[in-house]
Amino acid sequence: MADDDVRNIFSMTKALEKFQVQVIPAMDGKEALEVLNSGEAIDIVLMDMMMPEMDGYETIKNIRQTPPFATLPIIAVTAKSMIGDREKMYTSGSFRLYFKTC
Description:
- The protein is mainly alpha-helical and 102 residues long.
- The protein has 4 helices and 2 strands; from the N terminus they run ααβαβα.
- A two-stranded parallel sheet has the order 1-2.
- α3 links the parallel β1 and β2.
- α2 packs parallel to α3.
- The longest helix is centred in the N-terminal third of the chain and has 12 residues.
- It is globular, with a radius of gyration of 13 Å.
């Protein structure tokens, strides 16, 4: 989970731990990229879109340009959504559809 607000990381961690989900926090986009490149097994990313230095949009673009993470599920998280943000998220690569056949 990449978010610059420790309160959000704390509350999401508490909620997800009930489902045996291990949350690995990153305080900004650069740290999120470091975590991904560390070799840690990551199944999904929760990405805050409004972070200092490297925001969620830029971070997602960097993630998508790295072949092992090109299809990694990323959920965009934001407290403030403005006109045009949805399109910006689509173009950054945060929304993709995943289908599994049985």
